[in-house]
TrEMBL record:
Residues covered by the D-glutamate N-acetyltransferase-like C-terminal domain: 136-328
Protein name: DUF1611 domain-containing protein
Domain D-glutamate N-acetyltransferase-like N-terminal: 51-130
Superkingdom per UniProt: Bacteria
Matching InterPro entries: DgcN-like, DgcN-like_C, DgcN-like_N, P-loop_NTPase
Species assigned in the record: Qipengyuania qiaonensis
């Protein structure tokens, strides 16, 4: 049977297709890292060089181990489902698994897939389905507090940073909610709005809906999208900035990346450039917006190299700099600065 949006059945089998670029498998990695207890394994096609490290199995094996859904773990440029994936997706339906996608392409629009679902107990579920009748943004100042993660590029840690900060807020007894704005975040949190699937005129309004009025001491920790400097995705970043009206923001950066992912002709902006532009544009809907720190993705560095870089950048930028996955005292300082009056 077919269905656009409904409750997700777990555990998941993560489909990584024939992916060769780790940055495009961020949905699979995000579910492994933040919902690992709901993942039984991964399914890869010949030619794939990316792996989550989970056990490899096909849909029938996954179903035998209790899997209920296969999630497309790829978030490629344009959100396209490759034709060579279709036999594997049909295999998942034949095994009785729900097929869950966060891609822009709708599962039911693909030749043969809707027909396969009609004779299968498995469902077609598109997560990138915005709510109906979203409003145009008003710019009205809302009660409560908001934190937004922004980036120098896509796929470098905005979601992980927001999830880590929200987790630390909760551990400190701070009233807070993680607000998902992308398909992976929605799969992890179970709720949210995929901002890049919203018609442009309503995107800032969707961000307002996502972080409504709340108690004065309540924090919405909002997952960032794209980058204000991205040649393709700056629009969603701008709408999210204006609509979420953040009181504070954290800049996310990969220190080893030199150019925009998938756009090698565009060099990455400096952290300072992102701070300056975010404040300049963010003041339109929140004149008090301020940067409280930097999140660096140091996963490719040894621990000693990472610690040295984090310390040097903190001195250079004169603000807390941390890796939210390595955590430690540096991350605690960043969290404390987020909460500072």
């Amino acid at each position: 049977m077919t269905e656009e949006v409904c409750g997700l059945r777990t555990p998941y089998l993560l489909f990584i297709g024939d992916c060769t670029e780790p940055g495009y498998a961020k949905t699979a990695f995000g579910l492994r890292d933040w919902a690992g207890d709901k993942c039984v394994g991964e399914y890869a096609l010949p030619g794939a060089t990316v792996s989550t490290g989970l056990p490899r199995m096909d849909p029938a094996e996954a179903a035998a181990r209790g899997a209920k859904s296969m999630v497309i773990g790829i978030a490629n440029s344009g959100g396209r489902i490759a034709p060579q994936w279709l036999p594997a997706l049909e295999m998942a339906l034949a095994a009785g698994l729900d097929l869950v996608s966060g891609m822009h392409a709708k599962l039911g629009d693909l030749p043969g897939l809707r027909e396969a679902a009609e004779i299968s107990p498995g469902r077609l579920i598109d997560v990138r389905q915005p709510p109906a009748e979203l409003p145009v943004a008003t710019g009205r100042k809302r009660s409560g507090k908001r934190l937004l993660t922004v980036g120098t590029d896509c796929a470098l840690g905005k979601k992980y940073t927001a999830l880590s900060i929200a987790k630390s807020f909760a551990a400190r007894g701070v009233a807070s909610d993680f607000r998902a704005t992308g398909q992976t975040g929605i799969l992890i949190a179970g709720a949210g709005i995929a901002l890049d699937s919203v018609v442009a005129d309503f995107a800032a309004g969707a961000a307002e809906v996502l972080s409504p009025d709340n108690f004065d001491d309540h924090w919405d920790v909002i997952e960032g999208q794209g980058s204000l400097y991205h040649p393709a995705y700056s629009g969603v970043a701008m709408a999210l900035l204006h609509g979420s009206q953040p009181d504070v923001f954290v800049v996310c950066h990969d220190p080893l990346r030199t150019h925009v992912l998938g756009h090698s002709e565009f060099p990455l902006p400096d952290i300072e450039q992102v701070v300056e532009l975010t404040i300049q544009l963010g003041r339109r809907t929140n004149p008090a917006i301020r940067c409280v720190g930097v999140s660096l993705n140091t996963s490719a560095l040894r621990l000693d190299e990472a610690n040295d870089l984090l310390a040097r950048e903190a001195v250079r930028l004169r603000m807390p700099v941390a890796d939210p996955i390595r955590r430690g005292d540096l991350f605690d300082s960043l969290v404390e600065n987020c909460l500072a009056p």
